[in-house]
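Weekly structure sync, notes
Attendees: PL (lead), two postdocs, one rotation student
Agenda item 3: pending single-chain targets
PL asked that the sequence for the first pending target be pasted directly into the notes so everyone works from the same version. It is reproduced below exactly as submitted, 317 residues in total.
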Amino acid sequence: MQQNKRQQLEQWTTVVADTGDLAAIQALQPADATTNPSLLLAVANSSRGAELLTKAQQLANQYQPKGADNALLCDMFTALVGSELLATVPGLVSTEVDAQQSFNRQATIERARRLMDIYTFLGADSNRVLIKIAATWEGIQAAKVLESEGIHCNLTLIFHPAQAIAAAQANAFLISPFVGRILDWYHQRDNALRTDPGVEAVTTIYRRLKAMGSNTVVMGASFRSVAQVEALAGCDRLTISPALLEELATQQGAITRQLAPATTPPVAEPLLAEADFRYQLNQCPMSSDLLADGIRRFIADQQQLEALFHQQQRSAI
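Predicted structure, written out during the meeting:
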């Protein structure tokens, strides 16, 4: 019997569910799961939202009896959802640090440490948690410290090779370059694109990291179509929405591996300094636009989650 496209993809690539919807994850059975502030906000606004918000409030008060602020409440909610995901998938779960700390190295480190401590408090397997951090210079340097402490990181909102190389040189466990958002940016400026710049960007990043002998996992994210997924078959990991995972599982026809590890001896990239990192991002309008926009969107969703807790607290008075 011929394998469907998802089964073929899984020969070369670890499939990750890009959702916080437990029912969808249980149905799709991916290896890993990843969330972000937007997905967590969707969970908070779902049919289970009120129950989870209340539980997060109760647990936060147990974790910190002197009183929990909105930041702790959001971290508890994040870890609570992450704990449920850990119980659902056999592999890794990515949990994002508050995007409001994206330009604060030390605050990112402290929030990451607290998230891991909360996971331990909840009795979850924190060894399967990846701390997700926006790939600013400060975020990458925070990840370098966390990795040295044994806390593995997923550097997200990757749009430029400089981000990927700096992350690899910081020994980040995983990076998430965004395929669909890159395509959207170029498509808004040119309706007659002949190639997919998002696929090209991730291909370039994958090949450069493999050529330098890096162990950093490349996980393509933000897909708009099955065609984009197929074009990156063989990438270490791909995080895919439930709708596209279902589409892959229902489609027949052969797909071909497009990416594979380098077979030549590794060639080290020069150590990327902060000035060079910032200069390269500044010179790429797409990368600088999308990094800033992604952080702003995640901050807005984080603040909406905080507002839900504020409303809950006022209702309890």
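Discussion points:
- The longest strand covers residues 129-134.
- The chain has 14 helices and eight strands.
Action: rotation student to compare against the earlier draft before next sync.
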